[in-house]
Amino acid sequence: MKLINQQRLALLGSTIALLAVGGQSAIAAEKVVLTYGFMSMEIPIEDLTTFAESGETSDDLAALFDLAGQDPVPMRDTLNTPVSVNPTVLDLALNSPPGEWMLDRVSETIHPASGEAGQLALRAALIGASSSDHELTLLEVMQVYPTPEIVVQGDRLVETYSQLYEVLEPLEDLADILGSWEF
User: Fold this and answer.
1) Where are the domains of the chain?
2) What is the pLDDT of residue 18?
3) Which of 158, 154, 160, 159 is nearest to 35 (CA)?
4) Residues with Cβ within 8 Å of residue 123, at least 6 apart in sequence
5) Does residue 35 have a pLDDT over 60?
6) Percent of the chain whose predicted confidence (pLDDT) is above 90
7) Which long-range contacts (CB under 8 A, 24 or more apart) does 47-54 make?
8) Which of 160, 119, 124, 164 is nearest to 141 (CA)?
9) Which of 47, 87, 112, 179 could form an SS bridge with 58, CB 3.0 to 4.6 Å?
10) What pTM, to 2 d.p., does this model score?
11) Distance of CA 98 to the CA centre of its chain
12) How confident is the model at residue 8 (pLDDT cuts 50, 70, 90)?
């Protein structure tokens, strides 16, 4: 019974977090400040979407990849790699000590330009990205990120998303197990 109450409190807390962060802006992220070391450039989210979907880079994005000496293919793959996750189980996991630790680590790579409420915004974006189809991609997380501008450490993004994927992927199995239990 105590576990059920903790789950309800976690769900309530995340709902409040989604409303609080989501309420700050009627729109999701419009631009990403993509950084590679000391270089950074503002990229409209539409340019990242086009790049992820078609492989076509805008002039600014192509220039940034060239200046940073980065191959765009791993970035495109990372933006498009889906992970299946039940949003309710994700919410519970993110409201646990290991989930808070993971949010802290990931929010070092992806965070609001203001530098404030990084974990809260990331939690809202992860849950929001998974809510409609029980899967998320990094592109979807950026598209629903609840601030107008996101800072993304491009040189750490592939590694960070790989770690996030390893944490989130087993949650779908946990959702199946929990779904078979009667409370």
Assistant:
1) 2-180
2) 43
3) 154
4) 14, 17, 94, 103
5) yes
6) 38
7) 48/79, 48/139, 48/142, 49/139, 49/143, 51/75, 51/76, 51/79, 52/76, 52/79, 52/80, 52/137, 52/139
8) 124
9) 47
10) 0.77
11) 16
12) very low
